UniProtKB/TrEMBL annotation:
InterPro entries: A-glucoronidase_C_sf, GH, Glyco_hydro_67_C, Glyco_hydro_67_cat, Hex-like_dom2. Keywords: Hydrolase. This is Alpha-glucuronidase. PANTHER family: ALPHA-GLUCURONIDASE A. It comes from Bifidobacterium amazonense. It comes from the Bacteria. Pfam families: Glyco_hydro_67C, Glyco_hydro_67M. Residues 449-672 form the Glycosyl hydrolase family 67 C-terminal domain.
Length: 676
């Protein structure tokens, strides 16, 4: 049975039991979204909308210009009647699900609520591939591509009878359920395929594949979600028969314009393209001696007449580094490539920047590009799927980490702190073209996310995009209350406590103090202290007998710290003022260096790694107490994953402690046993 996530039908129906709905879109006209609201009220709540307003208790009304936002909504309650209003049918989708959530959470509405999304673009990026697999996916196969009703890995070519074009799973009910989940937390954009665009995926922008993309886009469109596709920069050569992909070549531009025109003929509200270029082997403008503004602007101009956008990824770095050369620094790459291009991007081009300078590690500073760009639209990229955060085997509620990085001073202003959400509109060329994107964490698994508690990350991501004032705790409480509505308060508190502490617990037993990686090379899960140390990926820890960490100072290191604004750089440059959680990201320090916590680096490593396993043992004990108080499937799912997490945490603890003990020769001050 497929899990209903935070929209369990019985819970939903109970919450709105006696309400009678009336939908008035006469001022804007009936459309796919208003029909969708009617259908959701009929299917989910099992009642039709009434035709006479006077019979209703909940009135959804679209009226142009009642608010300043076309997505925001207002809720008023008077004389037992609820009015949900917005300028558009999009706004009504959000208003309807927001009101429902309030009801499910048991709150009463005493005064007018006006809710306007914090971020204009609230996007989910799928790394789904046309063979049905998902790059860095830990919850089964793609819901978009692959064999109908199958969750086993396969090659689409194994099904020649379906034809080469039929790479689509075709499970429209599943996609519809997914679209509803996304809309219910305010997501308004989704890209369907992996940014590494290979094989048949290159052809998704052409017929006949496009016809099937259009079917999917129609479902998302009903839920006010724009569909995007990732494209391969070299498509004009690979599938277009041209002999160049030079972004300044007229024939190449004409090919993209024709391709885009074709897409919009099929999908009038198509969102646009996501492009990973000159990165990890993907083709890009560098091959033609052009820069990334040239590349992005070619797409922007093709999309502009249709109102589309190009989302250009800033994840560009040299993945063939020489570990012997300590002056090289992968962390510098995005800034070095894109800072000089500030101001050159078209108004419908958006630069998508990972929130940290390396790659979604358990602890990373904010990317210095975020703050440095002053005339560029930016999207900040997160990763909901837990590539370096436990693969949805280890419990890891990521909101504390995401919100902390958003709350960081970008250094945009010389005198006062400007956080990421405050900064994005200041740097924007077009304020509609900024926001957040995050790599999806769902798949064909019955519970969508592999680990049931990983649903909280998808939910939380949407909430964080819509309402920038929410705390991680508040979001965890919402999710737990909606998802475990049928259990007792104490059980819910246990689940909330697990979520709230899980990000710090995970961080405590993996690579210490922001140094990053130390993961197994083949799949990025589990400990592999030196797996990347002598490799080409630019992710090193440089541990030796005297100390550990990467010297990124201006004075003696790679100079990376100089990419931050002077006020921020000054604090980071000095190991004495650099925050503990990223100390080894910025400095190579002796094992005896004393942290702000008062502990030495080596003692911190020992203490956190012992504590990490103890915390997981605690989770196991407390989770065991939930047997019979929550549904069996969830109980078993999490219980099984906690056992795997425990084995993982023990392996991390033992290898990290032994490694640093051997390196430093310094014993644990508490005399605990460390393998020799
Ligand atoms: O960290 C890397 C991942 C790749 C991913 C890449 C990216 C889609 O290991 O799997 O490729 O990031 O963000 O492009």
């Amino acid at each position: 049975m497929i899990d209903h996530m935070w929209l369990e039908p019985n819970v939903v129906r109970d919450a709105v039991r006696d309400e009678v709905f009336f939908l008035d879109v006469s001022a804007v006209g009936e459309d796919a979204r208003s029909l969708r609201i009617r259908a959701d009220i009929a299917e989910l709540l099992e009642r039709p909308c009434v035709t006479d307003e006077r019979d209703s208790t909940v009135r959804l009304m679209a009226r142009p210009s009642v608010l300043e936002s076309d997505e925001g909504f207002a809720i008023d309650v008077a004389d037992g009647v609820t009015e949900i209003t917005g300028n558009t049918t999009r706004a009504l989708i959000y208003g309807f699900y927001d009101w429902m959530r309030r009801r499910m959470l048991g709150g009463t509405i005493d005064e007018r609520i006006v809710s306007i999304p914090s971020q204009p673009i609230r996007m989910i990026d799928h790394w789904d591939q046309t063979d049905g697999s998902v790059e860095r996916g830990y919850a089964g196969e793609s819901i978009f591509f692959g064999r109908w009703n199958s969750n086993e890995h396969h090659e689409y070519l194994e099904f020649p009878e379906r034809g080469d074009s039929d790479v689509f799973r075709g499970d429209m009910a599943r996609i519809e359920a997914y679209a509803r989940f996304l809309a219910s937390v305010g997501i308004n954009a989704v890209s369907l395929n992996n940014v590494n665009v290979r094989g048949v995926a290159i052809r998704l922008i052409t017929h006949p594949w496009l016809d099937r993309v259009a079917q999917i886009a129609r479902i998302f469109s009903e839920y006010a979600i724009d569909t995007y596709l990732s494209v391969n920069f070299a498509a004009p050569k690979i599938i277009g028969g041209l002999d160049t992909c030079d972004p300044l070549d007229p024939a190449v531009n004409a090919w993209w314009r024709r391709t885009v025109d074709d897409i919009y003929a099929m999908i009038p509200d198509f969102g646009g393209f996501v492009v990973k270029a000159d990165s990890e082997g993907e083709p890009g403008p560098f091959s033609y001696g052009r820069d990334h503004a040239d590349g992005a602007n070619m797409f922007a101009r093709a999309l502009e007449p249709h109102g589309g956008r190009v989302i250009w990824r800033a994840f560009v770095y040299d993945c063939h580094m020489d570990w012997r050369d300590r002056t090289l620094d992968r962390a510098r790459a995005a800034y070095d490539t894109f800072r000089p291009l500030d101001g050159r991007f078209e108004a419908n081009a958006i630069l998508q920047v990972k929130f940290g300078p390396i790659d979604f590690q358990p602890s990373e500073p904010l990317s210095p590009l975020i703050g440095a760009m002053r005339h560029t639209n930016l999207i900040v990229e997160f990763q909901i799927t837990a590539e370096y955060l436990g693969h949805q085997i280890d419990v890891n509620y990521m909101l504390p980490q995401w919100l902390a990085s958003l709350d960081t001073d970008t250094g945009y202003d010389a005198d006062t702190a400007v956080t990421v959400p405050a900064y994005l509109p200041l740097a924007a060329v077009d304020r509609r073209n900024i926001g957040y994107a995050a790599v999806a964490n769902i798949g064909m698994d019955d519970n969508w996310t592999g680990h049931k508690l990983a649903q909280a990350n998808l939910y939380g991501y949407g909430r964080m995009c819509w309402d920038g004032s929410l705390t991680a705790d508040a979001i965890a409480r919402e999710w737990t209350s909606l998802t475990f509505a049928r259990t007792d308060d104490e059980a819910r508190e246990t689940i909330e406590w697990m979520l709230d502490t899980s990000n710090a617990t995970y961080e405590s037993y993996v690579a210490p103090l922001g140094v990053g990686f130390m993961v197994k090379r083949e799949n990025h899960y589990g400990v592999g202290v030196n797996d990347f140390e002598y490799d080409r990926w630019g992710t090193y820890h440089y541990s030796d007998r005297d100390g550990t960490g990467v010297d990124r100072t201006v004075a003696t290191g790679t100079g990376y710290i100089g990419q931050y604004a002077p006020r921020i750089a000054a604090a980071l440059e000095d190991a004495g003022t650099c925050p503990d959680d990223v100390l080894l990201f910025f400095h190579h320090v002796p094992y005896t260096h004393v942290l702000h916590s008062g502990k030495t680096v080596i003692q911190h490593i020992y203490d956190t790694h012992f504590a990490g396993v103890e915390a997981v043992d605690d989770y196991i004990r407390r989770w065991d107490g939930l047997r019979g108080r929550i549904d069996d499937a969830t109980f078993e799912n999490v219980a099984e994953r906690l056992q795997r997490q425990r084995r993982n945490a023990i392996e991390w603890r033992d290898q990290i402690n032994t490694y640093f003990h051997r390196m430093s020769g310094i014993p644990d001050s508490h005399g605990r046993s460390i393998h020799r």
